[in-house]
Design a protein that fits this description.
Strand order of the largest sheet: 1-2
Number of helices: 8
Shape: globular
Structural class: mainly alpha
Number of domains: 1
Number of strands: 2
Distance between the termini: 103 Å
Order of helices and strands: HEEHHHHHHH
Length: about 290
Amino acid sequence: MSFNPPPPAYVSDDNDKNKNPTPNAGYSTNTANYGFQPNNDTWATGNGDTEAFGASGFDNDQVRGRFVKKVTGILGIQLLITFGMTLGASSACQDKAANGMNACMGAGLYSMPLVFTSMVGSMVLLFGALCCCQSLLRKSPQNYVFLFVWTLFESHLVSFIALKYDTSTVCLAMGITAGIVLLVSCLVWFTSFDFTKLLPVMMVVLLVWFLVTFIGRMIFGSFGMNSVYAGIGCTIFTIFLAIDIKLITGGGRYELGEDDYVLGAIYIYLDIINIFLYVLQFLGGSD
């Protein structure tokens, strides 16, 4: 029976120390960074140059610009669907019923079961996506399918509400809303003030406002204060519009990520729709 003898014991001497001065016996650790510099906001290109790399390139003006264009493009399609459906319904349904309400309310596409379905569907989709499935909003094409269905629900509700008002009032409210959006956008774009600093305070204000309006109207009714309600509500969502635009354009305390283009479109869409509904309420003076 044969066996291999054990290897001879290694005895270090001064000559070996001179040959291999490092404890890893001549093997140096891999210090290559593969183009990334984790402690610096730059990344190396193939020709040796460096470019901005902070926040995965999102601090780059070109990347941010593409993000803003994507959000505004999506938002434009949403508003086109919503206001197109609203204006079309208001123009096509001008007959009044015996009770003075629009004849289309409660019939056909605007029957109460369908309106209730749109309301529940819109709330379930929105809160479900924001609270449980935010990753869905970052995956394409699932996020676009979600956004299209949710926008249809919202458009159905907004057009139903607009049936309570004359077409001229609806058109005037659209014009005023467009003016407010343009003014706020210019204010955010051409000033250095960080509107996102107001976000925590405005979230508390919004919660209190919802509680006050819901409980107040349920217990005390309106008492002819529709104009006051509408003015306060329009002011709150105008401030939110400035905050959300700053979230999109960047440069503030809070920013949206590069993959949050659908979320950004939803935020600004909700601001604009709420401003429109409050302006409509202010002009019409109707419950």
